[in-house]
Amino acid sequence: MVDEQFTARQRAFVVLRYAETHSAVQAQQDFRRRYHRRPPCEQTIRNNFKKYQEKCKGRSGRPRTVHTLHTIATIRQALQSNPRMSARRNNIMSKSSFNRVTRLDISFHPYKI
Question: For a FRET experiment, which of 48, 55, 69, 72 has its CA 20 to 30 Å from that of 27?
Fold first, then answer.
């Protein structure tokens, strides 16, 4: 049986408890009491703590690069000239990036009637 993934808040909680107590077992017990679910294993807690300690960030992998002021301004200008612009047929960037920028940065909502 596969458990569902831990939320960012749950991972942060267990890492902070490990930092306070210096005990993975104590962090697991506190996690179980608070969230009423199976805690991450000791090795996962230590690895997450090491990752946060070294990198000081929770996200791993390649950062998203489309959130630049230039691309946001370009999309905003294109949408002002044609508000019914298709995300599939745009020639600015990929469909998913276009939708993400329009939703999060410009506050346009696809399929809004």
Answer: 55
pLDDT tens figures, 35-64: 999 999 999 999 989 888 877 655 666 766
Higher-confidence residue of 83 and 37: namely 37
Q: What is the CA radius of gyration of the chain?
A: 21
State the burial class of residue 98 (Cβ atoms within 10 Å of its Cβ: 0-12, 13-18, 19+).
buried
pLDDT of 110 reads 66
Please identify which residue in the block is written with the tokens 């929770």.
Answer: 58
